[in-house]
Write a structure and sequence with these properties.
Lysozyme, mainly alpha, Helicase, Ruva Protein, domain 3, 2 domains, 273 residues, Murein transglycosylase, 1% strand
Length: 273
């Protein structure tokens, strides 16, 4: 998901993980630069193990590096301040519509099965897929655990990202996330850019192979996105333009109004509305 903060702060992701009292107190300090990060990581890892996190995840966390690139990206999210027309131009709205129609036709059976299961049509899913990663072509080049740990340590939104860090450690423990996974600057994962807590809560097996792979399986990524929207109030058969019943679910995906409007516009064009 593009964080909006990729502002998202995703409404559901904020509650996607139950945090124990011990977790809330873990490594309580924070910092606005790399000083102290390594010590903080070691303390956080030790306390995570005391809460039941396994050696595999704890070892991966100990290898996390402070990411200045992640901090810079977090402080410079300018595109969400554009007008709608400028945002559509910068994000390649017309290209997404054109390519999205082709993806809908090529994957008709997949989108039909997702709509039958979750009630979400192809258009908004394809709009999100295209806007987030160019249909899986650009999923990021940042170490996921380093990105999330950096933001968990950073003082600006440390509590929120400590939830995400706990989720990432759980995903590594259960084999859903590789210890050296690569993703976007805020720790977003896969073809539709879920933050770790959202993978933990809304990730589903879309291709029936018994596991969730948000990176290599477009079926898993798209079905999980539909599951996210349904959990945020999506009603099968209802409209998703501003003022319609399903627009609120789109708002749950991203807090930026231009992003919400772009999903609705691009989705409608792909769906032929």
């Amino acid at each position: 998901m593009a964080f909006v903060a990729k502002g998202r702060i995703l409404a559901a992701a904020a509650t996607a993980l139950l945090v124990t009292a011990g977790a809330a107190q873990a490594a309580a300090g924070c910092g606005n630069n790399s000083a102290g990060f390594s010590e903080w990581v070691q303390e956080y890892g030790s306390q995570a193990q005391a809460r039941g996190i396994g050696n595999r995840a704890a070892s991966a966390l100990n290898n996390a590096k402070y990411s200045t690139k992640t901090i810079n990206a977090d402080r410079n999210q300018k595109s969400f301040k554009y007008s709608l027309d400028k945002f559509m131009q910068v994000r390649g709205g017309q290209t997404i519509i054109s390519r999205g129609r082709a993806h809908k036709a090529k994957n008709a059976a997949l989108f039909a099965s997702i709509e039958k299961r979750f009630g979400v049509p192809a258009g908004p899913l394809i709009a999100i897929w295209g806007m987030e990663t160019g249909f899986g072509s650009s999923m990021g080049n940042q170490n996921t655990l380093s990105a999330v740990a950096t933001l968990a340590y950073d003082c600006r939104r440390s509590e929120y990202f400590r939830n995400q860090l706990d989720a990432a450690l759980q995903l590594i423990d259960n084999g859903t996330l590789s210890p050296d996974a690569i993703g976007a600057m805020h720790g977003e994962i896969g073809q539709t850019q879920f933050l770790p807590a959202s993978v933990l809560r809304y990730g589903v097996d879309g291709d029936g192979n018994g596991r969730i792979d948000m990176v290599r399986s477009r079926a898993d990524a798209l079905a999980s996105t539909a599951n996210f929207l349904r959990a945020h109030g999506w009603q099968a058969g209802a409209g998703y333009q501003p003022g319609q019943a399903n627009y609120g679910a789109i708002q749950g995906w991203n807090a930026a109004s231009v992003y919400q409007q772009a999903i609705a516009i691009i989705g409608a064009q792909i769906d032929g509305e």
